[in-house]
Amino acid sequence: MATLNFGGTEENVVTREEFPLARALDVLKDEVVAVLGYGVQGPAQALNMRDNGVRVIVGQRENTPSWEKALKDGWVPGETLFSLEEAAQRGTVIQFLVSDAGQKLTWPRVKACLQPGNALYFSHGFAVVYADQTGVVPPEDVDVILVAPKGSGASVRKNFLDGSGINSSYAVYHDATGQAEERTLALGIAVGSGYLFPTTFQNEVYSDLTGERGILMGALAGVMEAQYQTLRAHGHSPSEAFNETVEELTQSLIRLVGENGMDWMYANCSTTAQRGALDWLPEFRQAVLPVFDRLYESVRSGEETRVVLEANSAPDYQEKLTRELTGIRKCGRPGRWFDHCARRIGENNGRKRNWNCTYI
């Protein structure tokens, strides 16, 4: 296992160089990987493994959009595409990739299909860590493992196709066979990970829920909306507020951060921008620290889990979700409508773009 220096701390990491695909395929040569759920992570992980030469089958409820997607992706009913239960019965590695609320609902059926020596694989620690709310308590005679790609299913597939791979966390919750870690690393490489960082189920779910609600999605959308509102309130046009809030961030600055880090982005901006950003950074940090503290405690206490399970299990959940996402798409927070950015087709680096502000 190699080490990488993160901010002065040496951390262990497994890379594709240390654990090449050939080794992963050797570990998995007698396995049948059953991917249960074909929604967000399922398609990417299943397709990546299939492309890498792993024996993969998919379990999905018939007559659903996800079943139709699986058909379009080349999974064949009765050969590589089955019901959830039949796939679980046929697999030796059971990748439980249905939604968190779906895991609570389907767990009794999946548990009944598990055989001694199987590996029960998660990409999120949610169901196991919050077992008091989900009821997901794996049997003692199966390996319980986790590979959590640090990106959406779309990113997992895209990075695999362009050869870059994606960072993933991995963990072993229970080692029934003595081979749990070897299986985990092999699966992590097979699904397209470039770097695999060790964690625990608990740490993964705490950091993941905090990150999604925080800087990755909730905080990002919130602060962008706030800046856009401020600029519009002071008379700036929708296009100007949009360009200064979204366009420059997504098309320029965040790319500099991704290439070489935050300091590289600062070094490649004007001295005026540098000075102002450095002066205001501490104020923003102090303003949001209490929010992040409350968020983390809500995650740790299980309150966020309660909210998710209650909302996602409601019979009208999909209808409500559609309304909320429509609100975001129409440039307003649900229930509060703001100016719409003008739609226009422009040229950007030789390709057409739809200039439609996403959520501000």
- The shape is globular
Beta fraction: 15-25%
Major β-sheet annotation: 10 strands, mixed
Order of adjacent strands in the largest pleated sheet: 1-2-10-9-8-7-6-3-4-5
Q: How does CATH name the architecture of the largest domain?
A: 3-Layer(aba) Sandwich
CATH class of the largest domain: Alpha Beta
Uncertain regions: pLDDT < 50 for 5+ in a row? 332-360
Specify the structural class.
alpha/beta
Q: Write out the CATH superfamily name of the largest domain.
A: NAD(P)-binding Rossmann-like Domain
N-to-C span: 44 Å
Short description:
The protein contains 16 helices and twelve strands.
Verbal overview:
Mean pLDDT is 88; it is low at 332-360. The two termini are 44 Å apart. The longest helix is centred in the C-terminal third of the chain and has 31 residues, at 271-301. The protein is α/β, with parallel strands linked by helices. The protein contains 16 helices and twelve strands. Helix 2 runs parallel beside helix 8 (153-161). Helix content is 52%, strand content 17%. The protein is globular, with a radius of gyration of 22 Å. It folds into two domains: 2-200, NAD(P)-binding Rossmann-like Domain (Rossmann fold), CATH 3.40.50; 211-354, no CATH class. It has helices spanning 21-27, 41-52, 65-72, 84-90, 100-111, 126-129, 131-134, 153-161, 180-190, 201-213, 218-233, 238-260, 262-267, 271-301, 303-312, 317-329, and strands spanning 2-6, 9-15, 33-36, 56-59, 81-82, 93-96, 119-122, 143-149, 166-174, 193-198, 345-348, 351-354. The strands form two sheets. A ten-stranded mixed beta sheet has the order 1-2-10-9-8-7-6-3-4-5, with helices on both faces. A two-stranded antiparallel ribbon has the order 11-12.
